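Ligand-bound model needed. adenosine monophosphate.
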Amino acid sequence: MKVLVLGGGGREHAIAWKLSQSPHCEALYVAPGNAGTNAIAENVALSPEDFPAVKQLVLDKGIDLVVVGPEAPLVAGIVDFFKGDDALKKVAIIGPDQNAAQLEGSKKFAKEFMAKYNIPTAAYQSFSASEVAEAQAFLEGLKAPYVLKADGLAAGKGVLIIDDIEEAKQQVAEMLGGKFGDASRTLVIEEFLDGIEFSVFALTDGKSYHILPVAKDYKRIGEGDTGPNTGGMGAVSPVSFVDEALMKKVEEQIVAPTIKGLAGEEYDYTGFVFFGLIKVGEEPKVIEYNVRMGDPETEVVMPRLASDLLQHLRAAADGNLASEKMEQSTDFCTTVMVVSEGYPGSYPKGKEITGLENVNDALVFHAGTKQENGKVLTNGGRVIAMSGRGETKEAALSKSYAAAKTICYEGIQYRKDIGFDL
Ligand code: AMP
Ligand code: GLY
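Prediction:
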């Protein structure tokens, strides 16, 4: 099979790395990719949101299967574009259609879906731009802290958690007034859930599913989970506080009903479902759905997937996932993200990265890098994910950290407490 991965981050490098090991993988392209994918695949410089350019590439290279890494092209309807185009119809594409992608693209849509299929989540109410007073009155009936969510995609900044009621009321007015553009002209206000978060992923063909290795990411920039949110500073798999009993609840109360709901709504959903979960007491609840793999969770999930991802994706695209056997390794995998100085605020790009050739006991997944004149340069806030594997979490972590220490660029930063229970 000739395969194209769309995207250019650590998630896409990890997916491409896993696909490249499949005996069924004849040719592998990543668009746009980065300096890491360049070493295992052919990079093609295009934006995954430029659908005509993607089509041209697929036809030129005779691509059989496309994996869509990030959410933006899915929310913009890339799957519908493929299915509605005579020349692309026979190409397998991994991702949900635009309608189902609203599970990530619209918080209100996701909450209504969970309510309909009785999937445990925080109690909520949604409000439109003309309902500022109603939304503020709703806050009065809740306990602090107040959780305000822009309905649409807001580059990871659309969720505010506020202790003071007056400030929350003010933010309600600002959000509904367009603080995050159209994304916040609809607002979801929900009950605060006090617990610890983890990430579960399933691959589905719209009818059946397989659950991938469970992971936890570390979202804040600072040690002890302090400071602003980032795309993710590290991850571990498996997760110490997620035992078999909890996973059983997750599967019975959340994963199975979600897949049933996808079928019930007749969504066209071939791809990954990302369940952003929180353990409250002993009970799992859904914080959010994403319609793609997580980043940096993928950088610990892929190394622990023992069976052939490409074969699973082909089966999913053919509607035959039920007959697949997915296997997980029993080892631990951890990843430490090295980032640019200033991240998640503004940061420089183009800093030369040295020492990569000396990393010999970790998987190096590039996130924001590019190759120029034989040099590898930083090209993003999150730069490289160092994934270590071992018989224990500690052994895996020591490999991740040894790798992080081996490389160098001006302003390199990373959290020193990835893998600790917080
Ligand atoms: P979301 O974009 O919905 O994943 O929200 C971003 C982050 O806000 C989550 O990862 C949680 O840390 C936090 N969060 C969202 N909703 C809640 C909630 N109902 N209770 C507590 N924390 C939440
Ligand atoms: N690591 C969280 C995400 O990918 O959204």
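Residues 123-190 form a domain with the Dna Ligase; domain 1 fold (CATH 3.30.1490.20).
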